[in-house]
Amino acid sequence: MIKEFKDFIAKGNVMDMAVGIIIGAAFTAIVGSLVADLINPIISLFLGGVDFSGLHVVLSMKDYPTMAAAEEAGAAVFAYGRFIMAVINFLIVAWVVFILVKAVNKAKKPKEEAPSEDPGPSELDVLLEIRDALAKK
User: Fold this and answer.
1) pTM of the predicted model, to two decimals?
2) Contacts of 129 (CB under 8 A, 6+ apart)
3) What are phi and psi of 18, to 5 degrees?
4) In the predicted model, is pLDDT for residue 21 greater than 80?
């Protein structure tokens, strides 16, 4: 059983997947920072200071000064701003992954050989030669 487990772990696909997950987690942190620290302030600038991550609706009758205060008090909070941020994060990650996969596929694709200067006879030429050869017999 241990030998089978070692064989399973040693397979290239499992190791590739593990590396992909680790890099993906690190990449997600980078994208999260990109969105929170760079993209949100730019969007906020154009929308008059709106911070998406703070947009929320408290689903109780009490008023709370911030979303954190409402959550701390145990109130139900409809945090749609966080959802907007998650969508923005997803779109950026999906776009970058698309670009990376496209680049890898392009790098893996074998280069087509350039056509030779003398392509040889065409199919029609070969058929005509066969016809003429058969006619001579």
Assistant:
1) 0.55
2) 121
3) -60, -45
4) yes
